[in-house]
Design goal:
The chain is an alpha/beta fold. Helix content is about 40%, strand content about 25%. It has one domain: Lambda Exonuclease, Chain A, CATH 3.90.320. Strands 1, 2, 3, 4, 5, 6 and 7 form a 7-stranded mixed β-sheet that branches.
Length: about 210
Amino acid sequence: MYEIDDLIQLSALQHMAFCPRQCALIHVEQTWTESGRTAEGRIMHERVHEESRESRGDIRIEYGVALRSMRLGLTGKADVVEFRRQQDGSWLPFPVEYKRGKPKKDDSDKVQLCAQALCLEEMLNTTIPGGALFYGQTRHRLDVAFDERLRRETEETAKQAHALIESGQTPKPVYATRCENCSLIAECLPKTIQKKRSVKSYLTRIIEE
């Protein structure tokens, strides 16, 4: 169990799963650059959070729900949580995360969403089987099942993010095609470092320390 002062932002898991260096630049070095894409994403989130609660039959919708997990050491907000009435009269949470672009090839968005579900499970003493990602570019929802594989990946990512942030160290750049879509590419300069370092070995080392 973590202490209040040790909690990290839920978004750090998405950054960590996407790129450990990006995670360190944002959450260790406090580096952030507003681009057209990030501005669109920020505005989308702000609009969602400004909505008031809704009720649609057997679905109750809450916006900007505060989340916390002392077990995983996480804090943040869910864009939307749909509480769906079950046959026994109970309400089952269904988290929905809004993203500006389109579905990614990696699991970074799914990890962030699953982390929200794990927070809700701890807070409400329940089990949440799934949620959804809404992408602004495609205007479609992607349903996500919180299976054992994704849950393990999410918990491991949380451990790695904590270890990275606590180390205070930023991994060296490892260039990949995804770098071209990163808002921090000008600060990261992934093509300027000739000697590449294994991110996996770096994370293993700092976790063991």
